[in-house]
């Protein structure tokens, strides 16, 4: 269900990324929610705001973290992270776009770049390691809350993420300008801040993380009200943006709330297909395959060229042990979205389950080529290599999966195995060498 970033690993280098993961002290887990549909919705909502900020939507990914608290943050210039709890709390596309605009302002105004440039202590590296783990070690899955957990020293992370009052003021000014430029009602920014009013009086342990990383003072709130009042007249909601917001929130809650909760509220959805999608998820979670297929088929009839609805149907079939049928549905989804790695990953998984090992290998290699740090894809790819008798490649991909997870000792075992069997000097042999070098560097720390 739920594109670990290629850009981040390319920018920092795999070895540095791994070292930062290892530096993170185990405390609590961070999990990315990977879903092609929800990530597409976030892309649709974020694109006009990012362009207004002078950023490229193809270079800045918006990713969802499995955390019920309210927060959003950035740790580099290519990712915006939003807590699932914040998404479920918001009521409109304009509110979510205001969150994106504020975080984009921290990127565009150079706040993160300055922090990265000043990153000198291991304590800061440990804090940064958590989110690099979230970006580099995330895994897709059919359930909402599946992924990789890497611990962090929470005090180090808060120190890295905490914005100064000057930075918050700068981001507020810029974000309102971006929203107006993008044709989004800036009133959404005030509505978001209303969620946090009164939290400044709470003890740190009871505050939402957003308050600790984005300090909200009365002066800041008054200044933000003035900025919104001085902006252009209120803009009517964009129906397309509202659709994708409702779809993302609806699918997220369908997987995270009780099915009975979803079924009681699904008909409140703004469009029939969103209601049908939500019901399909709820019925699937109740193991009612007939009703789940009936609902998702109705949604597909309404939107026949929508690859993400077929992706969900493929997931339902695969998890209901109808692998051959899932392959057909995933194949149709992949034809509609041939460059979507999570859909390709689902197709490859279904092909493996259906005994189509050669087809699965080809599909999963294509998925890995587009998202080489998704550990679910790496796990399935290793299985496909093994089923096709390519044991050295299976060992290599397993080593890379462990390396991305930060399990360098396990990675070294499999990388050594792969190195001894692969042609010396070949590309795969060099990849094994890279893993071994990262493991050796980590062992000397």
Explain how this protein is built.
The chain has 24 helices and 4 strands. The two termini are 36 Å apart. The chain has 2 domains: 225 residues, Metalloproteases ("zincins"), catalytic domain (Zincin-like), CATH 3.30.2010.10; 187 residues, Tetratricopeptide repeat domain (Serine Threonine Protein Phosphatase 5, Tetratricopeptide repeat, Alpha Horseshoe). By secondary structure, the chain is mainly alpha-helical. Strand 3 and strand 4 form a beta hairpin. The protein has a 4-stranded mixed beta sheet with strand order 1-2-4-3.
Adjacency order of strands in the biggest sheet: 1-2-4-3
Find the CATH superfamily of the largest domain. Metalloproteases ("zincins"), catalytic domain
The helix/strand class is: mainly alpha
CATH architecture descriptor of the largest domain: 2-Layer Sandwich
Mean pLDDT: 81
Biggest β-sheet strands, sense, barrel = 4 strands, mixed
Helical proportion, percent range: 55-70%
Number of domain modules? 2
The separation of the N and C termini measures: 36 Å
Task: Using the alpha-carbon principal axes, give the shape.
Answer: globular
Order of helices and strands: HHEHEEEHHHHHHHHHHHHHHHHHHHHH
Radius of gyration equals 22 Å
CATH class of the largest domain: Alpha Beta
Strand runs, count: 4
| Strand residues, percent | under 5%
Fold-level CATH name of the largest domain: Zincin-like
**Count of alpha and pi helical runs:** 24
Low-confidence stretches: 2-29, 119-156
């Amino acid at each position: 269900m739920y594109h670990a970033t290629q850009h981040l690993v390319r920018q920092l280098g795999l070895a540095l990324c791994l070292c930062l993961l290892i530096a993170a002290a185990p405390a609590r887990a961070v999990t990315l929610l990977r879903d092609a549909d929800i990530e597409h919705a976030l892309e649709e909502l974020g694109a006009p705001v990012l362009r207004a900020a002078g950023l490229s939507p193809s270079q800045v990914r918006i990713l969802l973290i499995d955390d019920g608290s309210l927060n959003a943050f950035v740790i580099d210039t290519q990712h915006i992270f939003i807590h699932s709890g914040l998404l479920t709390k918001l009521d409109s596309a304009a509110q979510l776009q205001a969150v994106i605009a504020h975080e984009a302002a921290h990127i565009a105004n150079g706040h993160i770049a300055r922090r990265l440039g000043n990153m000198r202590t291991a304590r800061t590296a440990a804090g940064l390691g958590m989110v690099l783990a979230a970006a580099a070690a995330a895994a897709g899955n059919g359930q909402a809350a599946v992924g990789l957990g890497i611990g962090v020293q929470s005090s180090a992370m808060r120190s890295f993420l905490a914005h100064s009052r000057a930075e918050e003021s700068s981001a507020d000014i810029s974000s309102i300008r971006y929203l107006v430029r993008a044709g989004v009602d800036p009133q959404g920014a005030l509505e978001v801040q209303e969620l946090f009013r009164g939290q400044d009086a709470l003890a740190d342990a009871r505050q939402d993380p957003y308050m600790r990383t984005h300090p909200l003072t009365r002066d800041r709130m008054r200044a933000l009200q003035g900025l919104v009042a001085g902006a252009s007249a209120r803009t009517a909601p964009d129906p397309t943006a509202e659709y994708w917001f409702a779809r993302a929130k609806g699918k997220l809650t369908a997987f995270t709330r009780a099915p009975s909760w979803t079924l009681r509220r699904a008909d409140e959805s703004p469009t029939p297909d969103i209601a049908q999608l939500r019901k399909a998820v709820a019925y699937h979670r109740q193991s009612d395959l007939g009703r789940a297929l009936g609902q998702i088929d109705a949604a597909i009839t309404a939107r026949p060229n929508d690859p993400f609805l077929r992706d969900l149907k493929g997931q339902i079939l695969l998890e209901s042990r109808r692998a051959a049928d899932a392959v057909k549905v995933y194949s149709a989804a992949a034809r509609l979205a041939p460059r979507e790695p999570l859909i390709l990953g689902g197709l490859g998984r279904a092909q493996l389950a259906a005994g189509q090992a050669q087809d699965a290998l080809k599909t999963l290699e294509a998925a890995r080529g587009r998202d080489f740090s998704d550990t679910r894809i790496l796990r399935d790819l290793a299985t496909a290599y093994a089923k096709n008798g390519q044991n050295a490649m299976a060992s290599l991909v397993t080593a890379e999966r462990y390396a991305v997870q930060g399990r360098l000792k396990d990675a070294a075992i499999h990388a050594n195995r792969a190195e001894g069997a692969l042609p010396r000097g070949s590309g795969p042999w060099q990849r094994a060498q890279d893993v071994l070098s990262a493991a050796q560097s980590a062992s000397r720390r």
